[in-house]
Amino acid sequence: MGAQGLVAPSALIEQLQWRYAVKKFDPHRTIPEDVWQALAESLRLSPSSFGLQPWRFFVIRDRALKAKLLPHSWNQQQVVDASHVVVLARKSEVGEAEADAYLTDMAQTRGVPLEQLAGFGKMLKGFLAKPPLDLGEWSTRQVYIALGQFMTAAAMLGVDTCPMEGFLPDQYDEILGLPALGYRSVLVCPAGYRAADDAYANLPKVRFPAAQMLTYLGE
Amino acid sequence: MGAQGLVAPSALIEQLQWRYAVKKFDPHRTIPEDVWQALAESLRLSPSSFGLQPWRFFVIRDRALKAKLLPHSWNQQQVVDASHVVVLARKSEVGEAEADAYLTDMAQTRGVPLEQLAGFGKMLKGFLAKPPLDLGEWSTRQVYIALGQFMTAAAMLGVDTCPMEGFLPDQYDEILGLPALGYRSVLVCPAGYRAADDAYANLPKVRFPAAQMLTYLGE
Question: What residues of chain B, 9 to 28, have a C-beta less than 8 Å from chain A?
Answer without folding.
Answer: 9-19, 21
